[in-house]
Specification:
By secondary structure, the chain is of the alpha/beta class. It has a single domain, classed as P-loop containing nucleotide triphosphate hydrolases (Rossmann fold, 3-Layer(aba) Sandwich), CATH 3.40.50. It has helices at residues 11-19, 38-49, 134-137, and strands at residues 2-6, 27-31, 63-68, 71-77, 97-102, 114-121, 124-131. The protein has a 7-stranded mixed sheet with strand order 1-7-6-2-5-4-3, covered by helices on one side. Mean pLDDT is 81; it is low at 134-141.
Protein backbone atom coordinates (compact mmCIF):
# COMPACT_ATOMS: atom_id res chain seq x y z
CA UNK A 1 0.00 0.00 0.00
CA UNK A 2 1.46 3.34 -1.00
CA UNK A 3 1.48 6.01 1.70
CA UNK A 4 1.96 9.72 1.16
CA UNK A 5 1.31 13.05 2.80
CA UNK A 6 -0.94 15.45 0.90
CA UNK A 7 -1.84 19.02 1.65
CA UNK A 8 -5.54 19.90 1.42
CA UNK A 9 -5.07 21.60 -1.97
CA UNK A 10 -3.49 18.40 -3.38
CA UNK A 11 -6.55 16.28 -2.62
CA UNK A 12 -8.36 17.41 -5.76
CA UNK A 13 -5.57 16.14 -8.03
CA UNK A 14 -5.37 12.87 -6.08
CA UNK A 15 -9.15 12.43 -6.40
CA UNK A 16 -8.99 13.00 -10.16
CA UNK A 17 -6.44 10.18 -10.42
CA UNK A 18 -8.56 7.90 -8.23
CA UNK A 19 -11.88 8.38 -10.04
CA UNK A 20 -10.24 7.56 -13.37
CA UNK A 21 -9.68 4.05 -11.99
CA UNK A 22 -13.03 3.49 -10.30
CA UNK A 23 -15.81 1.69 -12.14
CA UNK A 24 -19.44 0.78 -11.55
CA UNK A 25 -19.65 -1.96 -8.93
CA UNK A 26 -16.59 -0.79 -6.99
CA UNK A 27 -16.79 -0.42 -3.22
CA UNK A 28 -14.29 1.78 -1.41
CA UNK A 29 -13.58 1.26 2.31
CA UNK A 30 -12.59 4.52 4.05
CA UNK A 31 -10.68 4.18 7.33
CA UNK A 32 -9.60 7.00 9.64
CA UNK A 33 -10.34 8.68 12.94
CA UNK A 34 -12.95 11.41 13.29
CA UNK A 35 -11.78 14.45 11.32
CA UNK A 36 -9.17 12.51 9.32
CA UNK A 37 -10.74 13.52 5.99
CA UNK A 38 -12.96 10.64 4.85
CA UNK A 39 -15.85 12.90 3.81
CA UNK A 40 -13.36 15.43 2.37
CA UNK A 41 -11.97 12.65 0.16
CA UNK A 42 -15.46 11.68 -1.07
CA UNK A 43 -16.20 15.38 -1.71
CA UNK A 44 -13.00 15.66 -3.79
CA UNK A 45 -13.98 12.56 -5.80
CA UNK A 46 -17.48 13.91 -6.44
CA UNK A 47 -15.96 17.21 -7.61
CA UNK A 48 -13.65 15.25 -9.93
CA UNK A 49 -16.75 13.64 -11.48
CA UNK A 50 -18.29 17.08 -11.95
CA UNK A 51 -20.56 17.44 -8.90
CA UNK A 52 -20.90 21.14 -8.02
CA UNK A 53 -23.60 21.04 -5.36
CA UNK A 54 -23.19 20.59 -1.59
CA UNK A 55 -21.55 17.40 -0.32
CA UNK A 56 -22.68 16.71 3.23
CA UNK A 57 -21.55 14.05 5.65
CA UNK A 58 -23.98 11.12 5.78
CA UNK A 59 -23.43 10.74 9.55
CA UNK A 60 -27.10 11.23 10.42
CA UNK A 61 -28.93 9.92 7.34
CA UNK A 62 -26.32 7.07 7.14
CA UNK A 63 -26.43 7.12 3.33
CA UNK A 64 -26.54 9.80 0.64
CA UNK A 65 -26.90 9.03 -3.07
CA UNK A 66 -25.58 11.24 -5.86
CA UNK A 67 -26.16 10.95 -9.60
CA UNK A 68 -23.77 12.57 -12.05
CA UNK A 69 -24.36 12.10 -15.78
CA UNK A 70 -26.01 8.72 -15.20
CA UNK A 71 -23.34 7.54 -12.73
CA UNK A 72 -24.73 6.72 -9.29
CA UNK A 73 -22.44 7.25 -6.30
CA UNK A 74 -23.43 6.15 -2.80
CA UNK A 75 -21.73 7.61 0.29
CA UNK A 76 -22.27 5.72 3.55
CA UNK A 77 -21.17 6.62 7.08
CA UNK A 78 -21.58 3.69 9.47
CA UNK A 79 -20.16 5.48 12.53
CA UNK A 80 -23.48 5.64 14.38
CA UNK A 81 -24.40 1.99 13.82
CA UNK A 82 -24.35 -0.16 16.93
CA UNK A 83 -22.80 -3.66 16.96
CA UNK A 84 -25.25 -6.08 15.38
CA UNK A 85 -27.47 -3.30 14.01
CA UNK A 86 -28.50 -3.94 10.41
CA UNK A 87 -27.76 -1.36 7.78
CA UNK A 88 -31.04 0.06 6.44
CA UNK A 89 -30.01 -0.05 2.75
CA UNK A 90 -29.92 -3.04 0.42
CA UNK A 91 -26.38 -3.72 -0.86
CA UNK A 92 -27.74 -6.05 -3.57
CA UNK A 93 -29.11 -2.94 -5.33
CA UNK A 94 -25.71 -1.24 -5.54
CA UNK A 95 -24.21 -3.21 -8.43
CA UNK A 96 -24.76 -0.26 -10.76
CA UNK A 97 -23.15 2.24 -8.37
CA UNK A 98 -19.80 3.19 -6.91
CA UNK A 99 -20.01 2.97 -3.12
CA UNK A 100 -17.85 4.76 -0.52
CA UNK A 101 -18.15 3.41 3.05
CA UNK A 102 -16.84 5.32 6.07
CA UNK A 103 -16.24 3.15 9.13
CA UNK A 104 -16.48 -0.13 7.16
CA UNK A 105 -15.47 -2.15 10.23
CA UNK A 106 -18.87 -1.32 11.80
CA UNK A 107 -20.99 -2.82 9.03
CA UNK A 108 -20.78 -5.79 6.66
CA UNK A 109 -21.09 -4.17 3.23
CA UNK A 110 -18.06 -5.69 1.47
CA UNK A 111 -16.33 -7.09 -0.34
CA UNK A 112 -14.36 -3.91 -0.99
CA UNK A 113 -12.38 -3.34 -4.17
CA UNK A 114 -10.36 -0.38 -2.85
CA UNK A 115 -9.19 0.91 0.51
CA UNK A 116 -8.17 4.35 1.72
CA UNK A 117 -6.58 4.82 5.13
CA UNK A 118 -6.25 8.34 6.49
CA UNK A 119 -4.40 9.52 9.55
CA UNK A 120 -3.37 12.89 10.90
CA UNK A 121 0.30 13.11 11.85
CA UNK A 122 1.80 16.36 13.07
CA UNK A 123 -1.07 18.39 11.56
CA UNK A 124 -0.68 16.72 8.14
CA UNK A 125 -2.97 14.15 6.61
CA UNK A 126 -1.27 10.97 5.53
CA UNK A 127 -3.12 8.63 3.22
CA UNK A 128 -2.64 5.12 1.94
CA UNK A 129 -4.54 3.90 -1.13
CA UNK A 130 -4.88 0.28 -2.21
CA UNK A 131 -6.76 -1.39 -5.03
CA UNK A 132 -7.32 -5.10 -4.52
CA UNK A 133 -7.01 -7.53 -7.39
CA UNK A 134 -9.71 -10.16 -7.92
CA UNK A 135 -7.94 -12.78 -5.77
CA UNK A 136 -7.74 -10.39 -2.78
CA UNK A 137 -11.27 -8.98 -2.87
CA UNK A 138 -12.97 -11.75 -0.89
CA UNK A 139 -10.50 -11.28 1.96
CA UNK A 140 -11.47 -7.63 2.46
CA UNK A 141 -15.11 -7.80 3.52
Amino acid sequence: MKSQVLKEEEWEAFAVAVVKNLKVGDRVALYGDLGAGKTSFVRACLRAWGWSDVVASPSYPLMIEYEISGLKIIHIDAFRLQPGQLFPGDPSEWGTSIVFVEWPDRVQLGPYTHELRLEILEAERRLSWKAFDASEITRHT
